[in-house]
Amino acid sequence: MTPSRTLLGTLANGLLTRMSRGRLPRTSGELTLDGLSAPVEILRDRWGVPHIYARNLDDLFFAQGFVHAQDRLFQMELNRRTAAGKLSEIFGEMALETDRFVRTFGFNRLGRADWENAAPAVRDALAAYAAGVNAYIERGKFPVEFTLLRYRPEPWEPVDSVIFSRLMVWQLSHAWQSEIVRAEIAEKVGVEHAAEWEIHSLARNPVTLPEGIEFNALDPDGSLRRIPGPFLDRGKGSNEWVIAPQRSETGHAVLANDMHLALGIPSLWHEIHLNAPPYHVSGVVLPGLPMVLVGHNERIAWGMTLAFTDAEDLFVEQIDSHDPPRCLYRDEWQAVEIIEEPIPVKGRAQPFVERVLVTRHGPVISDRVGQSAQKLAVQSMALRPAPILEGWYRLNTASNWNDFVEAVRCIEAPQLNVSYADVDGNIGYWMTGKIPLRARGNGSVPAPGWSGEYEWTGEVPFEEMPHALNPQRGFLVNCNNKAVADDYPHDLGNAWMNGYRARRLTELIEARGKLSMQDHRTFQMDLYCIPGVELTARLEGFDDPDAEVQLALKLLREWDGFLRPESAGGAVYEVFRRALVWNLLSPALGEDLTRRVLGEGVHPLLARAQEFYGHDTTALLRMLDNPDSWWVQQAGGRDALLRDALKQSVAYLRETLGDDPAGWQWGKLHRIPFAHPMSLQKPFDQVFDRGPYPVGGDTDTPLQTATLPGDDFGNIGWAPSFRQIVDLGDLDNSVAVHPPGQSGQLASPHYDDLLPLWLKGEYHPMLWSRGRVEAETAGTLTLKPLTGADAQAGNQVGR
């Protein structure tokens, strides 16, 4: 499905598709390339997944870079330009604000520092990968997007990958944005009333480690034996869960993970299978990076969700007008580092120079986040040099729990929940990413940077971060929810998600004996909305004679709690919930601040949401249970609040979907688009985009389809970007899917062929053994090294 095409769109689609068809990469036969030491086989299966067989790691990563360029060169170009703050060079003034934002945070500077400090094995992998990308670029056969932009990509540098990784790390870190929102609410209505919207855990929603830090060995008879250790009793305690063999029909551990991130076309992820013995790994990676970020090797599988721990603080700085400027700290003026970042802008004769100020706490970001009245500096674990890519390299090669632990030790940012399972039947979990220890305060609001009283004094020791091996109950679940109970000895913040998805999945797991592989598939597609049921329950006893209110109450009370695309009750719930929240917030805070309380981020491309997202529902339920709530009283009292929101909901549904309630289907409001970066320019949206498609769910269902703050229920910010279910007893029995397809090439059959599977909750096999791969192979490409005879004959590389 594509947007309805105009005549111009139809003509553009025909022309660009024909152009793209002539530029599709070669996936069968032989190519001779300079830079290889031995032949490499690339077997592409019928879902477009490349399975690369090489004799050594340099050739393996070279081939991965070549394959990524074949499938995603334009996306890779955007990835590296976004991270380095170089979009304006090809897009002009429209991209300048984004480049200024990026240069202020300094991902280019961080990436260069990480490259200089990288372990030799990581540097070798990055260099080989870059050589493979360049082997494809040298062929001069580029996707049609480059023609439209009249641009030829420059050679890929190893540091490009590292800089891109730093942008990724920062986007997955938290929680400085909520500090601004929290302060703004308090300034508007006072601290006491602002506290009603604060993020709080719900006692009825689970934590990941309900028994605290558990460390148990698996004996040969399958029983668990508690291992004494120094951190055994130190504390109590995206979707992921791991199931121990005793809870699995397969008799082996199973790991399930679906990462919820922004969707578009091409896919965020590229799936790949890499084999150069003893290195053997399969999973997904972001185009522009070597290795595999999430997946499995011969011995272990791992999945990831965001931990939402607080590893960032804002400091209000006192900076004088001295030239050069100085910053006050403990009654002394200190020098401020000044970094001038020249930004080439298409159409400008001279670069725009961004003047970045960096204090002892970090870069001053005030002007970039709409807070020009004061000087705010951000201190973040994501803005420090770190051996992050070494962590992933070690994960790719880990063979047991100890290797896994040493790998995640390197992932100092972002803050992640990393699940673990292995072929020996062990399951585990470790929260990674450094968390600061603060001299004073908890980092919930901007602190005075000049006083020296709120400094970071250290970090939570890695060994004391939440973790578990072989928990007694036989499974672990994390859905970005709170990881540990309140008696955990360190402050991890309160930015975690509300826990409804984790509660639903825990209930599903506990309701069954042993889980089948089909059960895991069913869980990943579950649409049951617990807060929707809880809100409907709060309408018990409420009545109003108004006919529209009666109609809304009838549909809500008949609703079964599942947010299916065809659900009318689900549509009423979503519109009703939104109306309640807006009626509570907007009279006191206004529209802009209301959006921020609902989670709107500071940048539409790089930071579309922040830590308050999703917590308005839990705050709403608390307020409906509290007759003394100031916000409810401001709205005219509980009954008036409910009545007005129900009437508004029916009016909205009539206006949007017609007068017949049978047509008030959630999927007609809630539709997911797959937009291409070129679609900003009409009519290219009619060429490159796919969708929108009706989908069920919301931010609180296991199948999460999160709507960004705003009036459009189709303004979906993130959804499952990759699903995997790994059977550690038979890796060929594992399955995966990511939308919309493997290729970014418009005319490729793999441009959108995975969309039907993803929409229906189906998967493709995650092929592992050579025999299974060969049985599903659609094309074999052999890359051969350039020999002396070839060079003498003047063969053109890659032709």
Please explain how this structure is put together:
This protein is α+β, with helices and mostly antiparallel strands and 799 residues long. It has a domain at 526-707: Orthogonal Bundle (Penicillin amidase (Acylase) alpha subunit, N-terminal domain), CATH 1.10.1400. It contains 25 helices and 33 strands. The strands form eight sheets. It has a 13-stranded mixed sheet. Strands 6, 7, 24, 29, 30, 31 and 32 form a seven-stranded antiparallel sheet that branches. β8 and β9 (279-285) form a beta hairpin. α9 packs across α17 (568-597). The chain starts with 6 loop residues before the first helix and ends in a 6-residue tail after the last helix. 53% of the residues are buried. The model is unreliable at 220-237 and 794-799 (pLDDT under 50).
Strand content: 15-25%
Tell me the distance between the termini.
Answer: 35 Å
CATH homologous superfamily identity of the domain at 526-707: Aminohydrolase, alpha-helical knob region
Structural class: alpha+beta
Helical run tally: 25
Strand order, largest beta sheet: 1-33-2-3-8-9-10-11-18-19-23-4-5
Give the helix proportion (percent range): 25-40%
User: Largest beta sheet, briefly?
Assistant: 13 strands, mixed
Total beta strand runs: 33
Structure keywords:
34% helix, 7-stranded antiparallel β-sheet, alpha+beta, 25 helices, Penicillin amidase (Acylase) alpha subunit, N-terminal domain, 799 residues
Short synopsis of the structure:
This protein is α+β, with helices and mostly antiparallel strands and 799 residues long. Helix content is 34%, strand content 21%.
